[in-house]
Amino acid sequence: MLAPVRGRVWRELLYLLVGLPLSTLYFGLAIAGLSAGAGLLLTFVGVPVLAGVLAMCRGFGHVERARVRGLLRVPVGDPAPVRPAKRPLPAGEPAPVRAAKHGAAAVVGALLKSGSAWRHVLYSVVHFPWAVFSFCLALTLWSYGWSMLLYPLWFWVFPAFTDRPGLQLFQNGDYTFYLDSPLAIGAASALGLGFTLLTPWVVRGLVTVDRVMVTGLLGPSRLDERVSALESGRGVAVDTAAADLRRIERDLHDGAQARLAALAMDLGLAKEKLAEDPRAAARLVDEAHGEVKIALQELRDLARGIHPAVLTDRGLDAALSSVAARCAVPVRVQVDLPDRPAPAVEGIAYATVSELLEEVGRHTGARSARVDVWRSGGRLRIRVADDGRGSGAPAGLAERLDAVDGVLAVDSVDGRGTRVTAEFPWRARPA
Q1: What is the CA radius of gyration of the chain?
Q2: Can you list the pairs that 1-7 forms with residues at least 24 positions away whose Cβ atoms lie under 8 Å?
Q3: What is the DSSP letter of 219?
Q4: Fewest CB within a 10 Å sphere: which of 64, 76, 123, 300?
Q5: What integer is the mean pLDDT of 372-387?
Q6: Strand bridging mode 417-425 / 379-386
Q7: Element (H, E) at 425
Q8: Is the pLDDT of residue 91 over 70?
Q9: Per-residue pLDDT tens for 145-166?
Q10: Residue 121 and residue 132: Cα distance in Å, rounded?
């Protein structure tokens, strides 16, 4: 019942009413520009004219996307910018002149080849008849509904200022029907209420078509969205690689490097005391031998965390079993793969399971866990489940998987354990 007075309905109605004059402007300028450009193509002047029309229609697109975002609250993205191709400058003229000519020609060529620009032209042309239809229908329903709904408040205008008792509906010879009786006035108001309640849904349907047209013709294409996603994923991959390098540097500095520095000092002291106190020197050498073993173990652990040799030599089954053996809780590993995937895929799977099992061992309080790895179509799937108190995925893991077109799903219930499922594209190992 409150739909006719909601702010959303008035914004949508305003969108349709403003759309007609704007669409008329777009249509007139686009048709005039296309006609002039097509007619001048024989003189080659039409080429820059057509490029100007394309640029103009892209400007119309900015206005329409702003209207949709502001009035319809639809977050329509901007299409990819037109990027001229970079080519070597021709010789024979001064460099500034060559650069100016080359730049103008490159922009014109990029506009003429831009599918997004031509979609903007198509929108400017095809939206005009739809804007006329939606404007007329919405305005008619809205004005008729509210005028009839409020007719009991203004019907007195007819007998007061005209010689008619009410609003005339029709006349047939000597018989004229007026809305002047209480029954007729009430029926007109009830009919107006029906139209008033119907108008928001009609307007909603009309602007839905507009949303589809704007997002489909003026928004980014699927290729643009894919490129944007890949650029974002590349940024995440770069940040992850930088973080891994910082972690490796920190582990080396705080672990093996510090131990080797202490080892060098102990061996230096042992060398000085070798002649005067052989027993003390032997004790220092023995301590240094223990430090060497610890440093070697830390280096092995660090190398295993980067890319373990068992993964390269024996594959995911053996590598994940090794990770499970080092986990703080018993872990059952089941790897069901017809063959080994590409090394990059194995590395991602290994790192994912390692992080998830580390989360299980540190934060869930689980008594046991299970790791399942299998292939489903063109995707590699991993599931890590535990019976702990409920947790989540490690921070940043979802972003890192998204960078390789992967997906991460977490099903966690407090006190009933957590099940984390990850999947990403399968790539076969090269022959």
Answers
A1: 37
A2: 1/197, 3/197, 3/200, 3/201, 4/145, 4/196, 4/197, 4/199, 4/200, 6/200
A3: S
A4: 300
A5: 93
A6: antiparallel
A7: strand 417-425
A8: no
A9: 999 988 888 888 888 888 788 8
A10: 18
Please check the confidence at residue 242 and state whether its pLDDT lies above 70.
no
Neighbours of 226 (CB within 10 A): 12
Burial class (CB in 10 A: 0-12, 13-18, 19+), 193: middle
* Residue owning tokens 């239809």: 133
Q: Report the pLDDT value the prediction gives residue 302, as an integer from 0 to 100.
A: 61
Q: Map out the domains of the chain with their CATH numbers.
A: 3-218 (no CATH), 225-306 (1.20.5), 315-425 (3.30.565.10)
Q: What CA–CA distances, in Å, run from 188 to 145, 178, 183, 193, 211?
A: 10, 11, 9, 9, 34
DSSP letter, residue 379: E
Instruction: State the alpha helices, DSSP H only, in 81-181.
Output: 95-113, 115-149, 151-154, 157-161
What pLDDT, on the 0 to 100 scale, is given for residue 99?
A: 40
Which single residue is written with the structure tokens 């799937």? 381
Paired tokens of 274: 């070798």
**CA atoms 177, 178, 179, 180: torsion sign:** negative
In whole angstroms, give the CA distance from residue 69 to residue 349.
40
d(CA 216, CA 283): 78
* Dihedral sign, Cα of residue 79, residue 82, residue 86, residue 87: positive
Q: What is the DSSP letter of 341?
A: B
Q: Which long-range contacts (CB under 8 A, 24 or more apart) does 371-374 make?
A: 371/320, 371/324, 371/331, 371/332, 371/333, 371/334, 372/334, 372/335, 372/336, 373/316, 373/320, 373/333, 373/334, 373/335, 373/336, 373/337, 373/349, 374/335, 374/336, 374/337
- On the question of pLDDT at 403 being above 50, the answer is yes
Q: What is the pLDDT of residue 304?
A: 58
**What pLDDT, on the 0 to 100 scale, is given for residue 229?**
55
Q: Is the pTM of this model over 0.85?
A: no
